Amino acid sequence: MILYPAIDLKDGNAVRLLRGDMDKATVFSDDPAAQAMEFVAAGCEWLHLVDLNGAFAGEPVNAAAVEAILSQTKTPAQFGGGIRDMATIEMWLSKGLARVILGTVAVEDPDLVREAAKAFPGQVAVGIDAKDGKVATKGWAEVTNVDATDLAKSFEDAGVAAIIYTDINRDGAMQGPNVEATAALANAVTIPVIASGGVSSLKDLKDLNTCGAPLNGAISGRALYDGAIDLKDALELLKA
Predict the structure, then answer these.
(1) Are 158 and 117 contacting, i.e. CB atoms less than 8 angstroms apart?
(2) Residues 51, 129, 167, 171: which is the catalytic one?
(3) Which one of 14, 40, 150, 191 has the lowest number of neighbouring Cβ atoms within 10 Å?
(4) Number of C-beta neighbours around residue 188 at 10 A
(5) Where are the beta strands (DSSP E) in 37-141?
(6) Is residue 159 very low, low, confident or very high in pLDDT (cuts 50, 70, 90)?
(7) Averaged over 151-155, what is the pLDDT?
């Protein structure tokens, strides 16, 4: 299982939100590229980047910070937030991103996801952010009536590289991930699933790694910045 350290970008800084609330942001670094290099130096094999402003705006806002990260490291990075048309997908992949994450458009324009996955095999992931099992869009500002598992299943034949499943109620709250819901979703599809939201201890990583579902990885943010998870210990745990 891969550990994806999260770099969430707001106003050019690396931050963490509490349950997706933009008014409850803690700034952890004013130099996201330097933060990325710290993760890489510790041995991380992937980076998880999110443009929080972009998710609300519907277009890239923190592009300069992302480009700075891409220019300084060759470590594969996946990135989401405000990517809602083919031109933006093509633009980011041309800049060296390994994978784009499509969230809002997975609900509003699923044909775009299918088209992109076909055009860029292995480089398109779907972000499914759920609140009480229902998918939220537009930076989590709107909760739909779409069931998270049903949405995941709808892309079963689309060729997407991964599904990133976030439990919004757990995100940034340091209360542990929703292991049961994550495992259930992962067992419902053949698409690789990455767990996100609430991963705050080595025990959480162990629980996800042994949850009875073939998870591709787990994303952690605040716990890495706060020191609740020692990055090198986590990497060793997941390689064992």
Answers:
(1) yes
(2) 129
(3) 150
(4) 16
(5) 47-51, 77-80, 99-102, 124-131, 134-137
(6) very high
(7) 98
Write out the two tokens for 80. Answer: 């989401």
- Is 171 annotated in the active site? no
Q: For residues 1 and 208, is the Cβ–Cβ distance under 8 A? A: yes
Q: Is the pLDDT of residue 4 over 80?
A: yes
Q: Which of 8, 167, 171, 207 is catalytic?
A: 8
Is 111 marked active-site?
Answer: no
| Distance of alpha carbon 139 from the chain centroid | 12
Relative to beta strand 162-167, strand 193-196 is: parallel
Q: Report residue 25 as tokens.
A: 């942001």
User: Each residue of 159-187: b (16+ CB within 10 Å) or e?
Assistant: bbbbbbbbbbebbbebebbbbebbbbbbe
Confidence of residue 143 (pLDDT cuts 50, 70, 90): very high
